[in-house]
Amino acid sequence: MKKIATVDAVGHVICHDITRIVKDVVKDVAFKKGHIVKEEDIPMLLSIGKEHLYVWEKTEGMLHENEAAEVLYDICKNENIKPSEVKEGKIELIADIDGLFRIDVERLDKINELDEIIIAARHTNYPVKKGEKLAGTRVIPLVVEEEKLKKAQESVGDIPLMELLPYKNMKAGIVTTGSEVYHGRIKDTFTPVVIEKLSKYNISVCKHKIVNDESNMIVDAINELRENGADLIVCTGGMSVDPDDLTPSAIRESGAKIISYGAPVLPGAMFLLGYFEDGTPIMGLPGCVMYAKATIFDLILPRVAAGVKITKKDIARMGNGGLCLSCKVCIYPNCGFGKGV
């Protein structure tokens, strides 16, 4: 690459995109990398402040910004992810399906600690829609040492940095616990909320059981749902530590291994998650899920829907970002709630 006066650039190849910005009118690439300068281009180039141009001279061991962006994209790409066109040394990664976006944060940090290289991404474990942006890659200078890109490749290894997991076509069974609902004293307003949230992730309800506050009834209902082919079991009601709230103990009696009873998330502290031996997840939902716009259920459900096995450590790490601010107008998931990990 060499620098020459614009008036002397006719016939030379521009080595980087040149952007033209007119306030409230246009912001776009006026001349793309690889454009051969013509006599009629000179007035336009001068009008956007380009008294000099950098024209391309290939140098051994150096990569142009567009070439470097391609290398960074290769580090990130995975199934269900597609690239945008290379523009001004940047490639954006686009979701090709609805799904759960996940990124290895530790390896991402290693890349971004290298000089002159960046990968900017959405938060990991973020539910996305087809066509949405996932990340962007670029280098800071117009040309960069090829050795730096090799270091980035070595720090990532053979496993892609990012993944976009499709949601499984799951069937859920719901157990509603509470004498007031069982005896018809009040209307069940909890189950419709759960069904609506499940439907966002392609989860249908195969069976719904309403039971009294009795351990044996809760256990029998859970077993019946499993026998009816439920891929996920959701229990509502009776989730506090009050002596007459028996849902947590009944879930244990049903044979599920409890991963966590309690989560560092507000709202949603009294959340329970467990798994049966065959991998079927079971959740105990606290009452806040019925009335709060966003809760622990909204953080956990996309992962479960994508078939991700959740650990005790995963739940413990949710404390960072686990406080919902209960905004008057809820904009979740486009906010900080649940974005710590």
UniProtKB/TrEMBL annotation:
Its EC number is 2.10.1.1. Its cofactor is Mg(2+). SMART domains: MoCF_biosynth. Keywords: Magnesium, Metal-binding, Molybdenum, Molybdenum cofactor biosynthesis, Transferase. Pathway: Cofactor biosynthesis; molybdopterin biosynthesis. It comes from the Bacteria. The keyword Transmembrane does not apply. SUPFAM superfamilies: Molybdenum cofactor biosynthesis proteins (SSF53218). The keyword Magnesium applies. CDD domains: MoeA_like. InterPro entries: MoaB/Mog-like_dom_sf (IPR036425), MoaB/Mog_dom (IPR001453), MoeA-like (IPR038987). Residues 173-306 form the MoaB/Mog domain. It catalyses: adenylyl-molybdopterin + molybdate = Mo-molybdopterin + AMP + H(+). PANTHER family: MOLYBDOPTERIN BIOSYNTHESIS PROTEIN (PTHR10192), MOLYBDOPTERIN MOLYBDENUMTRANSFERASE (PTHR10192:SF28). Belongs to the MoeA family. Catalyzes the insertion of molybdate into adenylated molybdopterin with the concomitant release of AMP. This is Molybdopterin molybdenumtransferase. It comes from Clostridium gelidum.
